[in-house]
């Protein structure tokens, strides 16, 4: 499916895994629902604006950069791993404004150039570090179980334009062989941590 040079309102857009789907350029989606089974290789999004609506990722989307998409008031559901929302460079237009991740399964994913106070944060066992660069000194001074310190170092080694990073405590607990309750106690000490029950 190729959607470009148009405004689409109040529609359901189905993106299957059978073909490459192109969103943009010059595409505006208003109060639409996107149901996506796309992989990173089967989705191209450039100069697209999505206002309101739902982006439902039914199969895990891994390592996708939404750096050329402006999301405003969008609710994300489904699974996003290693994805970036917004732009990590001033030369790119992407933004994620007033978006809701409260029902999304997000892990190793970042949000750039947003107001963290206007984000719907994902619920535990997902967690968020707001302005992770501000937590770097604390993170680097701690003794973490197994190799968790390496990942926490990566999480906090982001520029100031990265306003939030999401992690999944279930994944952490399994990888670093630590109980979720013990992990939560460690996470709760990190500056800027947000845990929603």
Question: Mind explaining what this structure looks like?
Answer:
- With about 200 residues, the protein is an alpha/beta fold.
- The chain folds into two domains: about 1-105; about 120-195.
- The chain contains four helices and 19 strands.
- The chain has helices at about 135-140, 150-155, 170-175, 180-185, and strands at about 1-5, 5-10, 10-15, 20-25, 25-30, 35, 45, 50, 55-60, 65, 70, 75-80, 85, 95, 100-105, 110, 125-130, 160-170, 195.
- The strands form four sheets. Strands 10-13-16-18-17-19 form a six-stranded mixed β-sheet.
- The mean pLDDT is about 95.
Q: Helices and strands in order, then pairings?
A:
Blueprint (H helix, E strand, L loop, with lengths): L1 E2 L2 E4 L2 E4 L5 E3 L3 E4 L2 E4 L6 E3 L2 E4 L2 E9 L2 E2 L2 E4 L2 E7 L2 E2 L9 E3 L2 E8 L1 E4 L13 E5 L5 H5 L7 H9 L5 E7 H8 L3 H8 L5 E2 L3
Parallel strand pairs: 1-4, 2-5, 3-6, 4-7, 5-8, 6-9, 8-11, 9-12, 10-13, 11-14, 12-15, 13-16
Antiparallel strand pairs: 16-18, 17-18, 17-19
């Amino acid at each position: 499916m190729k959607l470009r040079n148009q405004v689409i309102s109040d529609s359901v857009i189905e993106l299957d895994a059978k073909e490459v789907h192109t969103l943009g350029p010059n595409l505006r989606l208003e109060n639409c629902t996107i149901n996506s089974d796309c992989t990173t290789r089967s989705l191209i999004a450039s100069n697209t604006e999505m206002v309101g609506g739902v982006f439902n990722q039914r199969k895990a989307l891994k390592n996708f950069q939404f750096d050329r998409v402006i999301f405003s008031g969008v609710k994300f559901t489904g699974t996003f791993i290693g994805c970036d929302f917004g732009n990590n460079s001033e030369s790119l237009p992407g933004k994620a404004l007033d978006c809701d991740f409260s029902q999304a399964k997000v892990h190793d994913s970042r949000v750039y150039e947003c107001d963290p106070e206007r984000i719907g944060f994902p619920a535990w066992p997902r967690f968020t570090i707001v302005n992770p660069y501000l937590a770097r000194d604390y993170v680097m001074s701690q003794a973490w179980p197994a190799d968790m310190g390496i990942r926490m170092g990566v999480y906090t080694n982001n520029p100031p334009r990265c306003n939030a990073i999401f992690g999944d405590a279930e994944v952490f607990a399994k990888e670093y062989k630590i109980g979720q309750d013990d992990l939560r106690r460690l996470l709760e000490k990190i500056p800027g941590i947000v845990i929603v029950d």
